[in-house]
Amino acid sequence: MAGVTALTFAALCLPLLGAVLAPFAVRVFGANAAWPLALVPLLAFVHFASLLPVIAGGEVITGGYAWVPSFDLRFSWLLDGLSLTFALLITGIGTLIVLYAGGYLKGHPDQGRFFSFIFLFMGAMLGLVVSDSLLMLFIFWELTSITSFLLIGFDHEREAARRAALQALVVTGGGGLLLLAGLLLIWSTTNATDLSTLLQSGDLLRANPYYLAILILILCGAFTKSAQFPFHFWLPNAMEAPTPVSAYLHSATMVKAGVYLLMRFNPVMGGTPAWETLLPLFGGVTLIVGTLLAIRQTDLKLQLAYTTVSSLGLLVLLTGFGAPYAIEAAALYLVAHSLFKGALFMVAGIIDHETGTRDITKLRGLRTAMPLTFAAALAAAISMGGLPPFFGFLAKEEIYAALAHPDPRSIAFTLVAVAGNTLMFAVGFAVALKPFLGPVLATPKHPHEAPPLLWVGPVVLALLGLVGAVFSATAHHYISSPTASAIRGSSSVIEISLIPHVGVPLLLSALTIALGTLVYWRIDEARLAMATILPRLGPGPDRGFDYFIVGLIRLSVRVTRFVQPGRLELYITCTFLCVAAILLVPLWLYGEMPALPVWPHQVQIHEWAIFLLAVLGLLSVVIARDRLTAIVSLGIQGFSVAIIFLLFGAPDLSFTQFMVETLSVVILALVMTRLQLSPIDRRPLGQKILDGCIGIACGSGFALLLMKATQGPFNNALTEFFNTYSKTIAHGANVVNVIIVDFRGTDTLGEIAVVAITGLAILALIRIRAQTERKLAENDPDAPEDLGVERP
């Protein structure tokens, strides 16, 4: 197991290594850099593929390294059927995407940067699906949002790309924060810090009193990431990214992260009425909305993007449906969708790359010029349409076997699935057939077959869809059944083959094909109908996002103007109010007020003199007629404290206090003499009373807190530690100096840095003032007037 742990860790780090090496590889190999770079995900794929026999045998591989042992936090991974399938999809399709990007972006000046981003994205997604630690899962979850932001906004000079990237980041990042709250609730209520422990807890989460809150928070994270209605709008807009990103995003990575999360938590959160209501409901609505919007589009990538939204809705519906075969259908469709959607997106990119357009109404007759691309597109469309002999057929048959039951709920969702699959059938074949059949139309670029780097990806994925169906028994043994078992939380064996279910599922499949063919035949009329209906429904969630951002900005401006009006005295008042509340409220609220001390009869006469001196200094500050006198009088307080330190046996601390007070008085006096301030305090009486009350509250709070601390039992563990080790470790006899310089060396360095930065800031202000005075002396009209310097 030690060897497997080391290899797994290396496989997880390979994409990050690829991100570092990518720019250098592009410089060295130029247009051929994709070939050596593709070895990075390929090696990871080979490692994960070597684990298939072990996982198919029912084992679960865990491993990792301690990160913060005191909090039971580890960098750990969990490899079972579900995570291994995702890892294979991410690395396998990632290998093809790297090759595809090498051809698609050939000659692009920022190709090295693109490869770095795609490898970071790959590493983030791979870390997400194999993470065992809940904290690591969240970290990688957010990393997928950040890296997708970089990829979607890759062409950052275009406003549409910047908007799409920002929109994806806001939606998925906001959902990530809600997911974090859900994970923290799980952590705090179950004490489970990793998934392997949580998955063995049985009904612990379902019996949790906070189950509904946890469920809603988890669903918010999953729905935003996997573009479920009403958060579906960001995904089609992400098509502003280059096509390699779109193909990877939709087939194997980010958009399936939410589906992965729901599948992962199904064993411990599924099976409840809330789970089996919310997931099918939102999944079904997303399925219908996505397909209807897909029919409306003329851009090949947008058509495929909206069908991805539909497919994600179908996966969510199946995950939460709760009927026999539903989990098996979800596992099959997860793999099938990755294969055919990755292939179709690459085909759309090839068409755009070789013809100069993606508008389906302007593409015809490409079959002769691009026969290999046409064959790959047709094979992928057959799988997407659920026709034999491709893997999509197995998935569709299992879907109908799961949904086709006589109860009203099953009938309703069966109709939803038939409608969604019908429209996806039509869109899939429209993408695969419309550009290639019919008379040739002129395109911006002369069409020809794509180079190998472009067509190898769709051809391989299309062939895998065929091979997986023909050798379904082997595919189920190593992929489908382990995946379904992990989702279900118990052993599950999938047996569906190219021999279909006889009965209602077969009739529903035939109905889907017939209706899909009809819609494909009349797809232009269907597109026109949707183009007429959709504007009448209102602006939609995409425009609503713009309204939300505008409203958020306006609200933030108003809040900022309210809490930050530019008045320093208001900021100071609020700060000290908070300090007083923090000190006094907990003491009062939790009954921790200290016992008032008995009047100290043992105070000596000279000590009374020091206290009297401090009181006189305080009165001098209050009644001072100008600020300079108040500053000097304020120093009396500091000197009095320093003398108290000296009397009570802390001469080094007393010396430090003397130095600090002296420097503070001198520096403040110098600054005050350079500023044009009112010589007297012009605050109204009410303001003076308020400020006095706040000052008394802060002082009382500190006094009460210190009294409470001193009345508790003294723990001398640190005292003994410093006395024992100051000389043996730090080689210093002065314990206080050793603490400051050695044991708290970093803290002291930070304090020195703060003082140095403050000094530099003061020096800069003084120089600015000197320059301003010189300009004013020369009657320079460009000199600023906001530094308290009057013009001559």
Q: What is the fold's blueprint, element by element?
A:
Elements: H1 2-29, H2 34-50, H3 52-56, E1 61-68, E2 73-79, H4 81-104, H5 111-130, H6 134-152, H7 159-190, H8 195-199, H9 211-225, H10 234-237, H11 243-251, H12 257-269, H13 273-296, H14 300-321, H15 326-355, H16 371-384, H17 391-403, H18 408-433, H19 452-470, H20 472-488, H21 504-521, H22 523-533, H23 540-563, H24 568-589, H25 605-623, H26 627-647, H27 651-674, H28 685-711, H29 717-729, H30 735-743, H31 745-777
Helix pairs in contact: 1-2, 1-5, 2-4, 4-5, 4-11, 4-15, 4-19, 4-20, 5-6, 6-7, 7-9, 9-12, 11-15, 12-14, 13-14, 13-18, 13-22, 14-15, 14-18, 15-16, 15-17, 15-19, 15-20, 16-18, 16-19, 17-19, 17-21, 18-21, 19-20, 24-28, 25-26, 26-27, 30-31
Subcellular location: Cell membrane; Membrane
Protein name: Monovalent cation/H+ antiporter subunit A
GO biological process, one term: monoatomic ion transport
